[in-house]
Design goal:
Blueprint: H1 3-38, E1 46-54, E2 60-69, E3 76-85, E4 88-101, E5 107-114, E6 121-128, E7 132-139, E8 144-150
Antiparallel strand pairs: 1-2, 1-8, 2-3, 3-4, 4-5, 5-6, 6-7, 7-8
Length: 161
């Protein structure tokens, strides 16, 4: 393929992902504003911001997550992710999994989610408390790595990395 065709395909992909990115960005800013109004976090719900890193191939990028209780399912939460790699942001994946509360107030999360075919099924296992979200992931396609997220700074909570 020619350089022009690659550039055109790249621009097309960016344009197609723009509405999804703007929608997530709006949700993330709203969640961050609500968290700021609520004060110190008391549980795992709310916005998270950090990074993911593959131990399989070394790829890494920014990661955002909004955690909300799953309606009508006590102890189950929706983890809404948006990930980045290089200049790209992709995702808007919702991972619905139970969170087991530990005696120390932290939560253990463990579950699987199916991503688009190219990425396969990802299993997640991690620990969250009110301020830290550390997890590992494993794909049935071979990829595996870590996710490290913290509460976003109130003054700089946008989807910028």
């Amino acid at each position: 393929m020619t350089k022009h065709l690659y550039r055109s395909l790249f621009i097309l992909c960016l344009l197609l992902s723009l509405p999804s990115c703007l929608s997530y960005h709006s949700r993330f800013e709203k969640a961050t504003a609500q968290a700021a109004a609520d004060g110190e976090p008391k549980d795992l719900t709310g916005p998270w911001k950090g990074t993911w890193k593959s131990k399989w191939n070394g790829h890494e990028g920014p990661l955002w997550c909004i955690v909300t209780p799953t309606p009508e399912k006590p102890g189950v939460y929706d983890f809404r992710y948006r990930a980045g790699w290089g200049v790209l942001q992709f995702g808007n994946y919702v991972h619905t999994i139970p969170a087991q509360k530990n005696p120390d107030g932290s939560y253990l999360v463990r579950g699987e989610m199916a991503l688009p075919k190219l990425f396969g099924t990802h299993a997640l296992e991690g620990k969250l408390d009110a301020k830290a979200f550390d997890a590992s992931y494993q794909s049935n396609k071979g990829d595996h790595g870590i996710m490290t997220l913290r509460r976003p700074a109130k003054a700089n909570a946008a989807l910028e990395q």
